[in-house]
Amino acid sequence: MTAAADRLERLAAVEEQVVSCRVCPRLVAHREYASAHRKPAFAGERYWSRPVPGFGDPDAGVYVLGLATAAHGGNRTGRAFTGNVTADWLVAALHRAGLADRPTSAYRGDGLRLTGAWMASAVRCAPPADRPTAAERQACARFLDAELAALTWVRVIVCLGALAWEAAAGWAGLRPRPPFGHGREQPIGAERTLLGCYHPSPQNTRTGRLTAAMLDGILHRAVRLAADQR
Ligand code: SF4
Predict the structure, then answer these.
(1) CA of 139 to the centre of ligand 1 (A)
(2) Domain of 208: which CATH number?
(3) Does the C-beta of 167 come closer than 6 Å to ligand 1?
């Protein structure tokens, strides 16, 4: 079997494990609650309502990590960073950086293709108030670990927010945990780097805490680092 075929097989196995997971009872209940209490704009839709696997290019050098699936975003559409304002911001920036073939991420099956990038959340189910517990984050760490083990070309993990940074630092075994900062770089061994970025949530983008130029700067840096370390 070629390395590429092995990567695809391993990623498919991770995806199968993710979508069938019911380890966290509170999150299983919440993802189903969100589905039963749709936003009016999505009233006619059938929600995915399961854990959401990562999505992107199996040969990715840049791994973009968020904190958790959004109740009416990924939990509705079944694809990471798809179907909400945060996804629009992130994927538009990925497009400007040459990592996505279009500036929108609307629904599973919309044809979006990433080249050189992978997107995922540290917690694959939607938590109440977007706040997973420490135990839930710990439980879901297995999938970050498995995905990164399969994605052998990943060189940079762009961590969207402090909790994604913490998840990635935990995966890397960094102790004490290095502090999060926008633009902060933390090498992991000789080949991989954590790169901090404010989360592109409306709370940050509408207040100007994160601008499009700031996000572009992070992604361009990630592309450069990934190329240098390949
Ligand atoms: S958050 Fe992760 S570990 Fe918990 S039920 Fe969802 S997929 Fe499973």
Answers:
(1) 7
(2) 3.40.470.10
(3) no
